Amino acid sequence: MYSDPNAPPFNPLPWIVWALALPMVAMELVLNMAQRGLIGGPEGAGWRITAFETVGVIPEYIRERFAVGDFSAEILVRFVAYPFVHYGVTDALFAIVMLLAMGKMVAEVFRPWAVAVVFFGASLVAGLVHVALPFARFPLVGAFPGVYGLIGAFTFLLWVRLAGTGTQQYRAFTLIGALMAIQILFGALFGGNDRWIAELAGFGAGFLLSFVVSPGGWNRVVARLRQR
Fold first, then answer.
1. Which long-range contacts (CB under 8 A, 24 or more apart) does 220-225 make?
2. What CA–CA distance (Å, rounded) separates 132 from 134?
3. Helix (H, G, I), strand (E, B), or coil: what is residue 77?
């Protein structure tokens, strides 16, 4: 069997996936080096907290600003900037790996702008849901809500494919069901926070946005369903 000796060892990732992932990698490297005292001097140890305060979706603070009609750029930009700051190396590593994996699968079908709309749209919706939760206290940061939006888009692709083959469409939701089960298990064993609610909201937003931004959009879905 012929193989191309010049072929890359790994399938290249679409540029939009790198455009989302590389700023996260750079941010985590800077914050981690600052925590270790390698850059930033004595103040470097507090850079991560400063980043949380600057771009994090802090529920109590944002609720207060919304209550007085403050919809300034400083407030609104948080809803699309918070995915680029994480709680630590482990949090960033898992988020970036999932972003690369899910982003690649979605970007092989969606146009680059559609991938960006799903990621940031899911992040925005997740942030708004987090603010709306009366019991939410911690800052929402990290790429997971946007990544769950991409999982929603991937689920949409499976859902459409299953509709075209006559297979039971609920099987498309197996992945999100497993992820939510793991979240609940880890929360019960080790304690956790309510970020999973924001992530679930991101999934829902990504799934619904896919009806609009996927190639062919809603018309393609209707056509597939009519073929059954």
1. 220/160, 221/160, 221/163, 224/160, 224/163, 224/164, 225/163
2. 6
3. coil
Q: Would you call 91 exposed, middle or buried from its count of C-beta atoms within 10 A (0-12, 13-18, 19+)?
A: middle
CA distance 122 to 179: 17
Helix (H, G, I), strand (E, B) or coil at 57: strand
- Tokens read off for 89: 């190396």
DSSP secondary-structure letter at 40?
Answer: S
Q: For residue 8, what pLDDT band results from cuts at 50, 70 and 90?
A: low
Q: Is the dihedral of CA 168, 101, 142, 114 positive or negative?
A: negative
Q: What is the pLDDT of residues 138-162, one digit of tens each?
A: 999 999 999 999 999 999 998 888 8
Residue 137 identity (one-letter amino acid): R
The answer to whether the beta carbons of residues 200 and 148 sit under 8 Å apart is yes
What is the reported pTM?
A: 0.88
CA dist 15 → 98, 113, 117, 191, 215 (Å): 16, 11, 15, 37, 18
Name the 3-class secondary structure at 76. helix
Token pair of 109, please?
């079908």
- CA torsion sign, 78 to 83 to 85 to 87? positive
Which has the higher per-residue pLDDT, 41 or 62? Answer: 62
pLDDT digits (tens, 9 = 90+) for 179-212: 777 776 766 555 566 788 999 999 999 999 999 9
Rounded to 10°, the helix 112-132/195-213 angle is 140
